[in-house]
């Protein structure tokens, strides 16, 4: 059966070949047993949409069939060219009789052979007739095979030396895009092999990768690719005998990127003098970059990025006159880069030294010999002056000099020199002054100038702008009017001093998906025409002075993920249609003047992960059916709510009142990565009981219902909300006992039940004890509570007093009035003692404006004194 699977892959690969015509020799007919083998193959094909096998009939010479080519002398089938220009594949199963084609030398020549001019080819790439999970080359007679392409299969097993026992002429081997793992067979180290590709292998599920202990015998090898294959081992050992076994070395391309290689770059690497491309990126290689890299006189491409290389970049790299691209970003390199590093780099087009501790010390007057198209120096020190030598790089299309320590104005030549730049990032510096008025004449599609000290107005924008980030500056004046930038996708202008209204001309940016205007001085009502931005995913207008009712245009944003209208002057009711925003993940409406009930349809937001309606005037009860907020009760929402695009929203931070104070979540992407969920309805006028359905939100992390008018009891099964880290029910009218299940919340790090009408014994447990130690005011204002850790014990007499306090009998009322009179007498005396101070205006104001925590301390002292005084006077 395994043989059938292999043969299936053989013939499926033939779909890529060009349609061959009738090419058999007129002097020889095909052999009967080979014709039968081909007919058996056709019999197993159940679908042939392109009609590739229509000419295959028993009554005709098989050498005249479409795609079949025979020897002029022997009539044996040498080639099968059954490729079709269409992507439709043959379907079916293949007879093992095809093994009778023992003299087959050519199967589908649709390969890029790097001008090797090879003629004997076996192409198994992209088989889909059947899935072959083993490579069964030993069953075939392949002594003449020179090219083998078995890429993009589902091979899922260790590599085996037996595959190659009879392949003596192989020069091209492609086993990429499989799941092969284990040791590369030594049998593979055949002297004729020139091309080897084992990229995209390894089995991540089994955590097993490709292992190469010694590749030094591949002396004829010109191209070696083992990229993204979980390749592990010491790179020094891998080629330890290369210099002695292969002289001169023929290797032109070495790509071992995105693996798990360790060790240091050996000095002998400089002996690979024929290298044109070297890629060792994204490994764990340490140590310095050896000076021997200067021997790569033919090198055009060098990528050592994302490793742990240390020390300085050797000056010898400037000897590489043919180098066109160099990537050294994300390492631990330090030292200084001078013009000597580029003195002979006449061919250099791309350079990326970002995120190293390098200092770029190049004079502004120096004119480099190269004409760069891409230059990235993020986090390299280039300041304090703006690097003037860049003005000669008139071919630049991508420039990143963010976090470069620049303390300067944008130079006058900025617009002219960078007129062809499409991507420009100068964020996180200390740029001062204004933006150039000629900005609109530039070719920019992405402009990032955030976190600087820019001032003045925003000029007309470039017509091709797609991504604009001017946030965290001191820009003032109105928003830029809509220009011809129809491709605009992201505008981040938050944390500036922009004023005025959002103009209707701004609505011309119809393609916007991200709009962040937070932390400015904008006012008035947002124009309804903003609803034309139907691709909107992120809209943030918080901390302005915007007014009007809840913007009706938001209902057009059916793909919106983030809405932030907090800290404005919006009024009116929340609309019932808010439930149609099915993909909404974050809703922030705090610190406005919204009134009315929370619409029941808000529970239709199954993807909602963060809801903050705090500090409004919302009334009514908390909606039932809270279990419809699926994202707050299921940990994995991938199938229902997509998150890939959300993770790119690192364009602002998100803060909320958590654990009694305002805290910063960090970037929005962190919320989704960590499945943070939060409901904050504090400081409103909500009434009624806390619905029992709230316990269904078992992945809710933060719940804040404080400063409302809730009555009833704490839900008895609140202990089932196992993910809770912060619970604040303070300053309500909740009564009854504290549920014992509260001590089951093992992740709870903040609890506040203060200023309610709770009674009875406090549940025991080390969890609640530690919470009390961190917040000793968590029970304050509940005079009916008793037991550890409070001072008053839950004695039988005390319990009966509590019952009478809640009771309703005449006797109970009489005793209540006794205590009330006693308390009033005590309070009257106390006020008389402090009357002089309190009636002085400045002392009275200071007393009533104490901070909450200090006020709580005063309250505890007074209440304790009153309680002890009452107890002493009891008969």
UniProtKB/TrEMBL annotation:
Subcellular location, record wording: Cell membrane
Protein name per Swiss-Prot or TrEMBL: non-specific serine/threonine protein kinase
Species lineage: Eukaryota, Viridiplantae, Streptophyta, Embryophyta, Tracheophyta
Domain Disease resistance R13L4/SHOC-2-like LRR: 249-431
Position of the signal peptide: 1-20
Gene3D superfamilies: Ribonuclease Inhibitor
EC code: 2.7.11.1
Start and end residues of each Leucine-rich repeat-containing N-terminal plant-type domain: 32-71
Domain of life: Eukaryota
Family recorded in the similarity comment: Belongs to the RLP family.
TM region positions: 817-839
GO molecular function: ATP binding; protein serine/threonine kinase activity
Keywords of the record: ATP-binding, Brassinosteroid signaling pathway, Cell membrane, Glycoprotein, Kinase, Leucine-rich repeat, Membrane, Nucleotide-binding, Repeat, Serine/threonine-protein kinase, Signal, Transferase, Transmembrane, Transmembrane helix
Catalysed reaction equations from the record: L-seryl-[protein] + ATP = O-phospho-L-seryl-[protein] + ADP + H(+); L-threonyl-[protein] + ATP = O-phospho-L-threonyl-[protein] + ADP + H(+)
Predominant location category: membrane
SUPFAM superfamilies: RNI-like
Organism: Oryza barthii
A biological process term (GO) from this entry: brassinosteroid mediated signaling pathway
Pfam family, one: LRR_1
Bilayer disposition of the protein: Single-pass type I membrane protein
GO cellular component, one term: plasma membrane
């Amino acid at each position: 059966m395994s043989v059938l699977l292999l043969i299936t892959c053989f013939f499926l690969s033939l779909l890529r070949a060009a349609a061959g015509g009738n090419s058999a020799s007129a002097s020889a007919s095909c052999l009967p047993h080979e014709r039968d083998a081909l007919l058996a193959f056709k019999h197993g094909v159940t679908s042939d949409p392109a009609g590739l096998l229509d000419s295959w009939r028993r009554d005709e010479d098989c050498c005249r069939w479409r795609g079949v080519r025979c020897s002029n002398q022997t009539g044996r089938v040498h080639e099968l060219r059954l490729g079709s220009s269409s992507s439709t594949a043959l379907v079916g199963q293949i007879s093992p009789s095809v093994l009778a084609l023992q003299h087959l030398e050519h199967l589908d020549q649709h390969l890029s052979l790097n001008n090797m001019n090879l003629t004997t080819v076996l192409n198994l790439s992209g088989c889909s007739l059947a899935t072959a999970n083993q490579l069964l080359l030993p069953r075939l007679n392949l002594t003449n095979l020179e090219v083998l392409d078995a890429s993009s299969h589902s091979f899922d097993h260790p590599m085996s030396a037996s595959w190659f026992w009879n392949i003596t002429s192989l020069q091209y081997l492609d086993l990429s895009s499989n799941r092969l793992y284990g040791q590369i067979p030594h049998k593979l180290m055949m002297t004729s092999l020139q091309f080897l590709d084992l990229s995209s292998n390894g089995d991540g599920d089994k955590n097993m990768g490709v292992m190469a202990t010694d590749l030094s015998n591949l002396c004829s090898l010109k191209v070696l690719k083992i990229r993204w294959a979980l390749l592990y081992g010491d790179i020094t050992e891998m080629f330890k005998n290369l210099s002695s076994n292969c002289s001169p070395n023929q290797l032109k391309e070495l790509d071992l990127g995105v693996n798990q290689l360790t060790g240091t770059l050996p000095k002998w690497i400089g002996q690979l003098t024929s290298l044109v491309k070297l890629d060792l990126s994204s490994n764990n290689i340490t140590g310095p970059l050896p000076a021997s890299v200067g021997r790569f006189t033919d090198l055009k491409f060098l990528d050592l990025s994302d490793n742990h290389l240390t020390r300085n970049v050797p000056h010898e790299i400037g000897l590489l006159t043919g180098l066109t691209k160099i990537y050294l970003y994300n390492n631990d390199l330090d030292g200084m880069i001078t013009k000597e590093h580029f003195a002979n780099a006449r061919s250099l087009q791309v350079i990326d030294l970002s995120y190293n501790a390098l200092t770029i010390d190049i004079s502004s007057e120096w004119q480099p010999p190269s004409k760069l198209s891409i230059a990235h120096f993020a986090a390299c020190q280039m300041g304090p002056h703006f690097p003037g030598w860049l003005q000669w790089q008139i071919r630049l299309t991508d420039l990143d000099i963010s976090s470069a320590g620049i303390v300067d104005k944008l130079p006058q030549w900025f617009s002219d020199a960078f007129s062809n730049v499409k991507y420009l990032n100068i964020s996180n510096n200390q740029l001062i002054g204004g933006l150039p008025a000629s900005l609109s004449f530039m070719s920019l599609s992405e402009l990032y100038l955030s976190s600087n000290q820019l001032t003045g107005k925003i000029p007309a924008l470039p017509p091709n702008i797609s991504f604009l980030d001017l946030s965290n500056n001191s820009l003032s004046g109105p928003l830029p009017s809509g220009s011809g930038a129809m491709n605009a996708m992201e505008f981040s202008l938050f944390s500036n001093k922009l004023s005025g209204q959002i103009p209707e001309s701004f609505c011309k940016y119809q393609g916007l998906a991200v709009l962040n205007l937070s932390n400015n001085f904008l006012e008035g009502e947002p124009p309804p025409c903003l609803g034309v931005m139907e691709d909107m995913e992120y809209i943030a207008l918080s901390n302005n002075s915007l007014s009007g009712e809840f913007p009706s245009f938001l209902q057009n944003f059916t793909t919106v993920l983030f809405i932030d209208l907090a800290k404005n002057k919006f009024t009116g009711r929340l609309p019932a249609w808010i439930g149609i925003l099915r993909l909404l993940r974050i809703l922030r409406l705090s610190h406005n003047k919204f009134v009315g009930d929370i619409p029941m349809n808000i529970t239709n937001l199954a993807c909602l992960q963060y809801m903050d309606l705090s500090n409004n005037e919302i009334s009514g009860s908390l909606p039932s059916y809270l279990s419809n907020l699926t994202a707050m009760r299921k940990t994995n929402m991938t199938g229902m709510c997509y998150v890939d695009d959300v993770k790119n929203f690192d364009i602002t931070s998100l803060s909320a009142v958590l654990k009694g104070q305002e805290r910063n979540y960090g970037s929005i992407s962190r919320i989704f990565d960590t499945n943070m969920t939060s409901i904050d309805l504090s400081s409103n006028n909500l009434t009624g009981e806390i619905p029992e359905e709230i316990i269904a939100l078992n992945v809710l992390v933060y719940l804040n219902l404080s400063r409302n008018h809730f009555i009833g009891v704490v839900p008895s099964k609140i202990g089932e909300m196992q993910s809770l880290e912060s619970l604040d029910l303070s300053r309500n009218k909740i009564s009854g006992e504290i549920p014992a299940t509260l001590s089951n919340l093992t992740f709870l790090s903040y609890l506040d039940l203060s200023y309610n009408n709770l009674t009875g014994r406090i549940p025991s447990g080390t969890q609640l004890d530690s919470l009390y130690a961190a917040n000793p005011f968590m029970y304050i204002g509940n005079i009916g509570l008793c037991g550890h850790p409070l001072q008053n014990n839950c004695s039988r007499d005390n319990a009966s007093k509590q019952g009478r306090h809640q009771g309703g009998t005449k006797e109970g009322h009489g005793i209540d009035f006794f205590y009330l009179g006693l308390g009033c007498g005590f309070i009257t005396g106390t006020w008389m003692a402090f009357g002089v101070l309190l009636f002085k205006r400045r002392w009275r104001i200071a007393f009533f404006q104490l901070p909450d925590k200090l006020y709580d301390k005063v309250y505890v002292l007074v209440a304790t004194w009153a309680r002890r005084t009452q107890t002493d006077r009891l008969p």
